[in-house]
Amino acid sequence: MKNLTIILGSGGFVGKSLYKFFKLNNANVLGIDYLEGEDYQIDFVKEFDELKKIIMRYSPKSIINLAAFSNSKQCNENSKKVYKLNVDFVRKLANLCSTAGVKNFIHSSSEWVYGPGPINIKRKILPESLYHKELDLYSRSKLDAELLLLKMPIAGMNVFINRYGIIYGNKENKSNCVVDYILERFINKKEIAIRSLDSGRSFISINDIIQFLYSNSLNNLMFKEHSIFDLQGPKCYKLKNIIDYLYDKDAIHIKNYIIKESDDFDIKNVRSDINNILKRDAQSLEEYINIYK
User: Fold this and answer.
1) Whose C-alpha in 4, 117, 260, 280 is 20 to 30 A from the C-alpha of 266?
2) CA of 20: how far to CAs of 10, 28, 30, in Å?
3) What is the rounded CA–CA span in Å between residue 79 and residue 17?
4) pLDDT for res 41
5) Domain spanning 170-201+235-269+283-292: CATH 3.90.25
6) How far is CA 189 from CA 172, 184, 251, 252, in A?
7) Which residues pair with residue 159 across a beta bridge?
8) Selecting from 2.60.120.260, 3.30.450.20, 3.40.50.720, 3.20.20.220, what CATH number does the domain 5-167+203-231 have?
């Protein structure tokens, strides 16, 4: 298939939305995951040889790797397996893609490589500069994969590393992030529990993420051979900002509003590349909230 993109991890939140977007645009795509219902069902670690056969057979233009233990909770629950998928698999996959003539290798990392908050990042930082930080298992695995990709002798293949912020959903697909949690509780007038109102992020829309990945895989975006992107929303919101906005707009009121008082809060305000990449303003959180209020 001409200009084929293979999505690894197509059964997850981002993967499902991205696969659907490719199909809606009549673009050639294959989805692979360990979950049932995808074009191919494969355990990426245990059945790597099967994945190799598929890649060699189809000769895709782009590989989008979304496969990972994707948060600290998952990593802590699967501590012995984390590096096999988040790092060792990435190394083997990148080598395979280079051998198979893949043009674009698009890898999913995370803003968690910057470490625990509070963090205010106004410039792009390379992995080497972050390695001294005290990172949890998830963050360390993502950072090690970045270092590995940047140092591998991969000739003739574009390597794009995307450090995602926390992604919220759209009208069709809700995420499990705190933004959609708060909206769901407000809409259904259920009790809401927040650990710290001062915790916050530059939350980003799934719509903007899939638009970027789609264009990136089709080579519609021109970047140098090895590039790292910080993909966050256009503005940093504390949880208090979100809740206050809902009340100010007379969206929906809830009776039970619980704050689990804690001095421990995490806020990451990272300079984002998203507006420059998309050549437009990314969706604001207010726009998203107004759809559902």
Assistant:
1) 280
2) 10, 11, 11
3) 28
4) 96
5) yes
6) 21, 8, 11, 7
7) 105, 226
8) 3.40.50.720
